[in-house]
Amino acid sequence: MKLLAATAFALLPLAAAAQAVDPATLSQSDLLGREIGFGLASSALDAQRPGIWTMGSTARTVASPPAAQSSDVLRRNAVAGYGFGQSGVSAFLGYGQAASDLSNDREEARIRSYFLGLAYAGETPHMRYGATAYVGRSHNVVDAPDALTGSADHDGRLTGLSGRITTQLSGTPQKGVDLTIQGDLLRHETRDFTVTGYGGQTVGARESTASRLRAELGMPMQLRGWSLRPYAAMGLYGGNQDDLNVGTATIGASDAFGTTQFSLGTGFAARNGVGGRVEMSVDKQGEAGALAGIGFHF
C-alpha cells in the first residue's frame, strides 16, 4: 500500500513540475532520532555509578527498508553524569549527532541533539537493574538537490525511557553466565517545515515512536586486572511512524524501524575507572554494523 500511495503521489503536480516524493529521505529523522536516543540510553545504563562518570560511543549501521532507499548511518554520543552516593540516582547531560547517506549518493540527512536525563541503578543478591529517562531537543537537516527532495532544516523533541535487568544464571558477577534484558522506547516529535524541492511544499508536523527489546547472554570473567564480559545478543526493533503530509497529499513513511539484529561483543572494565564495550552486528537483511564505547568514572 505504501508503494502504491507513493506511486500515485508521484503523478501529482508539485509547483511547475511533477516530482515524486521519496519517503525514505523524509523519514530519516525517525531513524536518526532512534539511533542517537538508544545510543545515549545504553551509554548511560553502562556508565552510571556513584560519583562523576562519563561515556562516549560511536556506531555505524545500515537501514534497508522494503521498497525504499537504504541509508548508511554513522552516529556519535557523549554523556556525563553524577551519581548521588549510594542512592542509585544519577543526573546527566548528553549530546548526540548522526548522519545518513542514502543509497543514491545524492541525498543526506543529519541530526543533532542535547539531552537532560535521570538514571537509577540498584541490585539484589541475584539481580542488577537500571533505568533511565531523558528528553532532548533535536535539529534535523535534509540536504539534497531540488530535483530530488531539496534542502530543509527543522526542530523536534526527543523523549525516551529505557530499562535493563541482569540476572545471574550461574557463578558470580565476576565469573559465570548472566542474562541481560533491555527495553527501550523513544518518541520523536518534529515540527512542520518547508523543503526547497517539491515546489516549496510544506511537510506537516509528525511523530514517531521507536522500540527495542534486546537480550544479551554474557560470560563475565577476570583477566590480568581487567573485568571482561563477552556476550551474544539479539535485538528486536519496531515502532510506529506517522504518515508524511506533503502539501495536500499524504504518503506512508518509509519503515525506518522494523528489523532484527544479532550481535557479538564484549564489555570491559579496568580498576582505574576505564570501561566500555565493542560490538559487531548483522541484521536480518544481512547489513553489518559496529559499535565502540569507552567511559571513565572518578
Can you tell me about this structure?
The protein is mostly beta strands and 298 residues long. The chain has a single domain (2-297), classed as Autotransporter beta-domain (Lipocalin), CATH 2.40.128. The chain has 3 helices and 19 strands. The protein has helices spanning 2-10, 23-26, 28-47, and strands at 13-14, 17-18, 51-63, 71-83, 89-102, 108-124, 127-143, 152-172, 175-190, 193-194, 202-203, 206-218, 221-223, 226-241, 244-246, 249-251, 259-270, 274-283, 288-297. The strands form 4 sheets. It has a 12-stranded antiparallel β-barrel. Strands 1-2 form a two-stranded antiparallel sheet. The chain has a two-stranded antiparallel sheet with strand order 10-11. A hairpin with a 5-residue loop joins strand 5 and strand 6 (108-124). The radius of gyration is 21 Å and the shape is elongated. The protein starts with a helix and ends with a strand. Mean pLDDT is 91; it is low at 1-18.
Quick summary:
The protein is mainly beta and 298 residues long. The protein is built from three helices and 19 strands. The chain has helices at residues 2-10, 23-26, 28-47; strands at 13-14, 17-18, 51-63, 71-83, 89-102, 108-124, 127-143, 152-172, 175-190, 193-194, 202-203, 206-218, 221-223, 226-241, 244-246, 249-251, 259-270, 274-283, 288-297.
